[in-house]
UniProtKB/TrEMBL annotation:
It comes from the Eukaryota. Residues 57-132 form the Bacteriophage T5 Orf172 DNA-binding domain. InterPro entries: Phage_T5_Orf172_DNA-bd (IPR018306). This is Bacteriophage T5 Orf172 DNA-binding domain-containing protein.
Length: 163
């Protein structure tokens, strides 16, 4: 109960960078070794200004113990949505790393995608608009910065496609 109360207090800190520092000072959750992956989601939306459908590119940094299994889950559940898997990083403090990356994206003004997935209807959390996140290069810089700050090895691995 105390851990939950302390975590709730941190989320009430208005500044994202101050939240990140609070998480660094004393992590409140059990962490483990896994992979942080980056993935693009391509969705078709209607653009009112252009009066036609256009592709919108969204990006996510999430973690999984088995990235190949996660790829299959997305491909099986989200019909009609294209996912482009980019890079993965191994980390011993994966929950902390993911939290710090998301807080940094929010501090930079990256907006979460407000709509549910057109393929499965679920609102996948943590997809950000690519333009606000700085693209894949901007996201990788953030991830690699926090890996270095956490004293973790920085090794960017390409994610092979899974069928």
């Amino acid at each position: 109960m105390r851990r939950r109360r302390e975590l709730a207090e941190r989320t009430r800190i208005p500044d994202s960078i101050d939240q990140a520092l609070a998480h660094l000072a004393k992590p409140l959750y059990k962490d483990f070794h896994a992979e942080l992956y980056t993935v693009f989601r391509v969705t078709r939306i209607f653009n009112n200004d252009l009066q036609r459908e256009v592709d919108r590119l969204e990006i996510k940094a999430g973690y999984s113990i088995d990235t190949a299994r996660r790829q299959l889950e997305y491909n099986d559940n989200c019909d009609g949505v294209e996912f482009i898997w980019m890079y993965k990083y191994r980390c011993a403090s994966i929950k902390l790393l993911e939290k710090l990356v998301h807080l940094t994206l929010r501090a930079r003004g990256a907006a979460l995608v407000p709509r549910p997935c057109p393929g499965c209807g679920v609102r996948h959390r943590e997809f950000f608009l690519v333009s606000a996140a700085g693209g894949i290069d901007g996201l990788c810089v953030i991830i690699e910065f926090w890996l270095g700050a956490l004293g973790q090895p920085i090794q960017r691995l390409s994610i092979p496609p899974v069928n």
